[in-house]
Design brief:
- By secondary structure, this protein is an alpha/beta fold.
- The protein folds into two domains: 3-134, Rossmann fold (3-Layer(aba) Sandwich); 151-351, Rossmann fold.
- It has eleven helices and 14 strands.
- It has a seven-stranded parallel beta sheet with strand order 8-9-7-6-12-13-14, sandwiched between helices. Strands 2-1-3-4-5 form a five-stranded parallel beta sheet, with helices on both faces.
- A hairpin with a 5-residue loop joins strand 10 and strand 11.
- The N and C termini lie far apart (44 Å).
Length: 361
């Protein structure tokens, strides 16, 4: 492979030790080369005046200019795929990580632990996989937007056709690129929304509390990490905890378990969707968002076959169209919609309104 064919990466990290470790990990892959480093956001912006990398791997907490402000400026002036690499144990840092994703960063990974740690190899492999995948993402300039743009009343009506069956639960599955889409959907739903939402979001261990805090702060919804045998309440959002599958019983209680991983994942979207198909049938709705792999796709088809309405994110608005693309190929999608049309569609579905949307079956 020639130099020109390699994925060129800029590493932005103020810690010398972490920076050297990241360089070692990245350069260990023959498809990747580190073409520059920066110790803070100002240095990164200066670097971009002279060279444009394929991917930026960036820390959050840095002197002079942090990762959020740097992401915001890059995405407004010179868009490049940005992968946030932050410590997952610091709530403030993880909150800022999701603010950076809202500003345009395409993914987040946990900072690798030392070479002697038992999880080093898997964390390093995840960083390499993410950098390679994100190098193929087409990013566009991000303009500052008003929160008014996210109000459901500002959106054109969506049309979801359905019978008189009441929706009792909505299941949502997301992976790479999912947090900003979840935030968009929740911010656009009315605050008196009458149905509980159960969410499986694939994310590195330790980031979930920061995601929950960020969603609580930015959407106006009560978002929480699910607990075992709890009755989901209307208008509340429940995220599957790290390393636990989430399902629902026939009586509607959330159940958590540590059964075998599915698609090498725990929690798995497949596990949640399967339980919704079995226990709720047409009284549930399923939503599958951006992400790599195929988790949840076949089980979304089971939901549809059981009478549920299913919504799949379209290719154009997905960071990675793996899971949604697989679902569409299987015929699992009742509707294929861009990210900003999913909330109006959900509202229409729950309120039993009827307007024009694109049905794929």
């Amino acid at each position: 492979m020639t130099q020109a064919q390699k994925i060129n990466v800029l590493v932005v990290e103020d810690s010398n030790a972490v920076r050297m470790l990241l360089i070692h990990i990245l350069n260990s892959d023959p498809k990747i080369q580190v073409i520059g480093t920066a110790q803070n956001g100002r240095d990164a912006l200066e670097f971009l005046k002279h060279k444009t990398p394929d991917v930026i791997l960036m820390d959050i907490e840095m002197p002079e200019m942090d990762g959020f402000e740097t992401t915001r400026r890059i995405m407004e002036m010179q868009p490049v795929p940005i992968v946030i690499c932050s410590g997952s144990g610091n709530p403030r840092e993880t909150m800022t990580t999701f603010r950076s994703m809202e500003a345009g960063a395409v993914a987040c990974v946990a900072k690798p632990l030392g070479k002697g740690h038992k999880d080093f190899e898997s964390m390093a492999a995840h960083i390499l996989q993410t950098v390679k995948l994100m190098s193929e993402v087409k990013v566009v300039r991000r303009w500052p937007r008003s929160k008014r743009d996210l109000q459901v009343g500002m959106m054109p009506p969506m049309s979801i056709k359905r019978g008189a069956t009441e929706i009792g639960l909505i299941g949502i599955g997301a992976s790479t690129g999912g947090p900003p889409v979840l935030q968009t959907i929740l911010a656009m739903l009315p605050k008196d929304f009458s149905v509980p939402l159960l969410v499986v979001q694939h994310i590195s261990p330790g980031f979930l509390p920061g995601l929950v805090a960020w969603l609580n702060q930015t959407t106006g919804f009560k978002v929480q990490i699910a607990t075992h045998e709890v009755k989901p309440l209307p208008g509340n959002v429940y995220l599957a905890p790290d390393d636990f599958h989430m399902a629902v019983q026939a009586d509607g209680l959330i159940v958590l378990n540590r059964e075998e991983p599915e698609n090498n994942l725990r929690p798995a979207i497949s596990h949640l969707f399967r339980s919704l198909a079995r226990r709720f049938g047409a009284h549930a709705a399923g939503v599958l968002l951006t992400g790599m792999g195929k988790d949840g796709a076949a089980e979304l088809k089971h939901m549809k076959d059981s009478g549920a309405t299913t919504i799949v994110q379209d290719r154009e608005s997905s960071v990675v169209h793996g899971m949604p693309g697989e679902a569409i190929a299987l015929g699992a999608a009742t509707y294929v919609l861009p990210a900003d049309k999913i909330a109006p569609a959900i509202v229409s579905l729950v309120n039993r309104q009827s307007v024009a949307g694109r049905g794929d079956s």
